Amino acid sequence: MKVSFDENCTYPPEYFHRRFRMQRKLFLRIMNDVKAYDDYFIQKRDATGCLGLSSIQKMTTAIHILVYDCAADHCDEYIKIGESTAIEALMTFCKAVIGVYKEDYMRPPNEADIARLLQEREERGFPGILDSIDLL
Predict the structure, then answer these.
(1) Which of 5, 18, 132, 135 has the least C-beta neighbours within 10 A?
(2) Whole-number Cα distances in Å, 27 to 21, 63, 84, 118, 132
């Protein structure tokens, strides 16, 4: 995990983007928002004093399952997380994302959104940008 998340990581930003389908900065922003919403993503010590899974491990598992449509037990080798924990991380991540971003991103567009999208369509030449939205 350190090869992708350290400040001086081994791989270039393009590698991170290809692997996670988003920029590192966006991944970390989502991770911080999700950690602030649900303490499940905060690394804790267990009853024996050992550190549990990190927020990066839990979120990487959820993103990996969502992006690559893979089985939860596939993450065991790659991220060192068990199948039941991977499923729990995925479910908790999805609920947290909905809780954090529902008001801003999971709502019907308002007039200001439509005007902004139409302006972007004009500037960037995106034909059909609003074809799936009923504008009436």
Answers:
(1) 132
(2) 9, 9, 23, 28, 28
**Do 1 and 57 form a contact (C-beta atoms < 8 A)?**
yes
Output the pLDDT for position 109: 81
Among 97, 79, 130, 88, CA closest to 26: 97
Alpha-carbon distance of 90 to 74, in angstroms, equals 13
Residue 53's CB is within 10 A of a number of other CB atoms, namely 18
d(CA 2, CA 38): 24
The span from the CA of 25 to the CA of 125, in Å, is: 27
DSSP state letter for 109: -
- Residue whose structure tokens are 């024996």: 48
Question: Phi-psi category of 54—alpha, beta or left, where left has phi over 0 and alpha has psi -120 to 50?
Answer: beta
